[in-house]
Amino acid sequence: MSSFGVTSMAILEVYFRFLWKMKGSGEVLRSEMFATFSLSVGVAVGLGIIVFGIAYMPFHEGLVHKRLLVAPIANVPYFARVDVAHQLDHSDKFKGVPYRLFLGLKGVEEEDPTNELENFSNNKLQQN
To answer: Which residues neighbour 64 within 8 Å (Cβ) at sequence distance 6 or greater?
Structure first.
């Protein structure tokens, strides 16, 4: 019943807006421009969150934690390094460097004056 009410209000709003435009004061209120702009920004942010969530599920839950079956992508070297980067985040090595889901180990190499990171990642890649 509430969806009927919301739909009715939307139909009335569209009808009266066209009526208002046709009778024509011709001026657009600043509040209307702000509402349109904020709506477009809100849609862009919402879509970004949705896209990240869609990408997060198979990669993080499937590849890293093995909760989903993602066998075809598990053998891709890039995704194997993403898995290593996630495990590195949960280890005590390198003071728990911040994990970047889709960037993998990029930027972590700068914090590793020795080749300990390379040894850690090679060991993890050989285990997979």
So the answer is: 82, 83, 86, 87
